[in-house]
Amino acid sequence: MPGTLEDDDSGQAGPGFGFGFGFGRMDDEMATAYGPYGPGSEPRHRLVPPALRAPFEARVWREFLYLVISLPVSILTFTYAVVMLSLGAGLLITFLGVPVLGAALAGCRGIGVVERARARALLGLEVAEPEPVRAPGGKRGPVSWVGALLKSGTSWRHVLYALLHLPWAIFAFVFATVFACYGWGFATYPLWRWVFPAYIDQPGLELVGDDGRDRHFYLDTPFEIAASCVLGVLVLLATPWVMRALTSVDRLLVTGLLGPSRLATRVRELESDRGTVVDTAAADLRRIERDLHDGAQARLVALAMDLGLAKEKLDEDPRAAARMVDEAHGEVKLALQELRDLARGIHPAILTDRGLGPALSALAARCTVPVTVTTDLPQRPAPAIEGIAYFTVSELLQNISKHSTARRADVDVWRADGRVMLRVADDGRGGATVSARGSGLAGLAERVEAVDGILIVHSPPGGPTSVTVELPWR
Prior knowledge:
The protein is of the alpha+beta class. The protein has helices at 27-31, 50-53, 58-90, 97-122, 142-151, 153-187, 189-192, 195-200, 222-258, 262-313, 318-346, 349-354, 356-365, 383-403, 440-449, and strands spanning 205-210, 215-219, 371-376, 409-416, 419-426, 454-458, 465-472.
């Protein structure tokens, strides 16, 4: 349920929307967000329940393969890290210790590249590349690079991964292998039990054997065979959960030790948010310039020409001059109305004077769908946050009017844990999504995220649709 601007035939933005804080026209993209079943087709119905399909799905086998491969890989990485670190530490009494330690850290970073690629291919885990090694002051040369490598916390986190991953890989390999082998072995036991009487000269699989006391227990009766098969099936059904639990630890290790640090991630987010803010601000300035040029400015130019003609006709044809002045007076009124609408789109005066609640009520009164507005704010948030909240709701309401075929809508605003919460809901046909890159909702989500906000959409096919926005209070 994204919001849009109401465009006229000339392509100009309609009054009162889209100029504040970078929330521009998203009409064409958002028109595709609503449909009979949203951006995708009608969900498929499978005959086999998910719990029974899970042991045979490719995801489970990829996770099992990841755990199996982890053992030899972790042995190699652990050996490399221990040998190189020990050698470098032992050679620190000479000049050779420092470059050996640098080589150890560089090698561990290379191992991190392989491990991230393996996690991406088998676990579907996307981990960003960590920040590169940069010498302070932009210095170049091997000595500066080795020094920066030794001071890099990311490099030492790669070493820690190489040391910690081996014990976990041993445990995960043994547990996953034994679990999978026992599950498949017992589940298929009725199919291969004939091997024992045919080739081993015993009635079935021997579970307990003591030749001294002549005690043996074989799985050979129909009940025992059926019970073992049922046990194997139960183990198989639990296998996907076991694999996911084991690989979740690997996911934590790869994400926490081989990915970028929190500080680097935060810097990247701020750089991306800054780019979004700069782009939307530039788009707003271009839009304002276009609307002034094509709207009020064009009317004022025509008004000046009409007044000039009226001045020339004042002596020879006073009636015609009076008629032209009357027409010019009408043009002045239209120009003033366009300027008021433009100013309201940049930042409405009611929002500055009376706050978010009255401003949203005035906004809802202009919506073509009946809207109920409920606000519960003990005090006013920061002016910038008020503006973002106002224009977010305005675009969402515009989209309800144009694309949702809703009969009514609700807008709720409240404060929770130092955050401003917005919820815009309608009873329309649903199907809205933010997954489509370049869509209106995706652009709206990017603009909300630029101020550390969150936008969540719940819009099943057939509706209802609910968009929840969380913004910082300050």
